[in-house]
Task: structure prediction
Amino acid sequence: MSSALDVNAIRSDFPILEREVYGKRLVYLDNAATSQKPRQVIDALVRYYETYNANIHRAVHALGEEATAAYEEAREKVARFIGAPSSESVVFTRNTTEAINLVAYAWGRANVGEGDEIILTQMEHHSNLIPWQQLAAEKGATIRYIEITPEGTLELGNLSALFSPRTKLLAMPHVSNSLGTINPVEEIVAEASKRGVTTLIDGAQAMPHMPVDVQAVGADFYAFSAHKMLGPTGVGVLYARRELLEEMAPFLGGGEMILKVTFEGATWNDLPWKFEAGTPNIADVIAFGSAIDYLDALGMDNVRRHEVEVTAYALDRLRGLDDVTLYGPDDPEQRGGVVSFNFGDLHPHDVGTILDRHGVAIRAGHHCTQPLMRCLGVTGTARASFYIYNTQDEVDVLIEGLKAARDFFK
Ligand code: PMP
Result:
């Protein structure tokens, strides 16, 4: 039993958790990839399409006004949830990846030039690596990497040596999707900011799982995805400091993002709409608002406590198996609800396939962190990742599945 959350009540809100896979109860442990959705979120989608589906912002009819109000209300909810000073700092994108690309194009192309430097970490998801590699290649800039320690934390001893007068940006994950490591982002952002370096935090694995106040983190940009925090796919958020958004040129051009257009040119819409060209993902943004309500009602401190409990239990049980290699920090307080491991000489895909036959959904592979896998000296890992509806019983099913995998390949 969790001491922080009423998991039985939570589970009853998630219709998918009632299904079976290969005749076994579904044990969904792939939450770092995407979370499941509660009835409340699914209902919000259906309600929108059944009762007030309309395009937003320009409509002169009731449906359009209702849809606009609901869409903008979702933005207000997000702003409150993340501690943004105002909803003008909240830009809706398709996902974390698009949010980071928005910054790489709209800020990066204007502010990074030949000979400039960007600092990243060795634990980047490809989403926070490729856009900067593309920018660096285009501009003739250089990327430096904060290395990882054998424990899977960041090597911060020589952090100051990585900065130079040419450093323009520091971008890094709040929580690693492969190692689970929670990085001391406040401290690192402060080091960058005092040198006048712009900062971006990839919060895809943090915002869903712990209380995050973007102003306390202090970064200029903070990106995350709705689909990993009970919301629908197709919605991401870019939080940005208002002054930066004001300075930046638009990312995409078209409808919505303009104020006045002539044959000669155009002026841009107010924030945040300047960065939301075209018809946005109205239904999914509104349903994301319901996901935020759901998490708010649980309390993010409780979400975090629950995940620490389940993760601690999973780490203990995995350590009890012979021949398991665990990656990331030992202390569950220093990690999110992500447990990456290898099991004997079994290929992670084989582990994943056998577990699937037991109804257990995990992820196997490089988790979009190929360079990190190279640092770890592996081609991939098996990864179990937890959320609000997971239980210790489900961890037990995972362990039984692993024992079966070992017997199968003996
Ligand atoms: N960064 C991290 C740390 C992630 O875990 C993910 C999703 N796996 C992403 C970025 C990309 O998120 P999305 O696919 O929603 O753009």
